[in-house]
Amino acid sequence: MGNSYGQSWYKIHEYAGKTFAWCGSDTEQRFDGNMANPLNRERLENNRWARDSISYTFNKDGFRSEEFNYEPDNSVLFLGCSLTIGIGMRLEDTWTYKVANTLGLRRYNIGVGASSADTCFRLSHHWIPRLRPKYVMMMTPGNMRMEMVLDKHLVNLTPNTPNNARHTNAHHVEMLQGFYDVWLSHPANSELNRLKNVMGVQTICNSIGIPLVEMPAEEALKVIDWKLRATGRDLMHPGREWNDRVAQVFLEKLSVFEK
């Protein structure tokens, strides 16, 4: 990677400038498996999900975002993980799309699935000074997540991901796992790591006079009891109703800056 701190995991893995029918946990295999299960099939049908319901289009920089035009103050920039990208959701139903549409601003979504607060800071360091959006909104990923840079790899470590790593060889997994387990052994490590990253993003925004609206992912997941209501096509992520409510919450938080 060198010093290309703005690199997207999706660009490294050749998503840039392309459109896909499936992405992340929203896989065709999972969809077929859920359709074969009577209870899950009913959930999919109740939520009006079909095989061709969703497309994921990535810009030339490897984000599920509008193309960047580098004009100051004409965009709102979003940071976060799969909840911010909108995995399992049509673009028009995602909270980021709703917020940008309400504000009448371009939607610069630089979220990365399975990512961490480390990722948010790394991308902020590169993109915020260059794009100079009018607002920055961050749904901060869980504090037990971590990003590691290894040569040309961006490795996302999460407690609930198989092998806690994606797209890296067995040597990397073995090398990282021991460190990651020790790091997780005391909550102060993960709590302080996330705090430092949030404060870092805030400092970047402050330095160029951009309001930051931040909400932890675990707080966002509690805005409604989404598991009993509409869900995404993968049946793992929140659905339309949750995205509607989260968009409202971010806009309400933003209104404090506008007074």
Explain what the structure shows.
The chain is an alpha/beta fold. It has ten helices and eight strands. The radius of gyration is 18 Å and the shape is globular.
Could you name the key traits of this structure?
Rossmann fold, two-stranded antiparallel sheet, alpha/beta, 8 strands, single chain, 13% strand, four-stranded parallel beta sheet, 259 residues
Task: Report a brief summary of the structure.
The protein is an alpha/beta fold. The protein has 10 helices and 8 strands.
Topology:
Elements: H1 9-12, E1 19-20, H2 28-36, H3 38-46, E2 56-57, E3 75-79, H4 82-85, H5 95-103, E4 106-109, H6 117-131, E5 135-140, E6 146-150, E7 153-157, H7 170-184, H8 187-207, E8 212-216, H9 217-220, H10 240-258
Parallel strand pairs: 3-4, 3-5, 5-8
Antiparallel strand pairs: 1-2, 6-7
Helix pairs in contact: 5-10, 6-8
Mind telling me the C-alpha Rg?
18 Å
DSSP, total strands: 8
- Strand order of the main beta sheet, please? 4-3-5-8
The CATH class: Alpha Beta
- Give the class from helix and strand content and strand pairing: alpha/beta
Task: Estimate nothing, just give the exact number of structural domains.
Answer: 1
Order of helices and strands: HEHHEEHHEHEEEHHEHH
Mean pLDDT: 92
Oligomer: single chain
Please tell me what the overall shape is.
globular
> What is the CATH topology assignment?
Rossmann fold
Which regions have little confidence, pLDDT < 50, spanning 5+ residues? 162-168
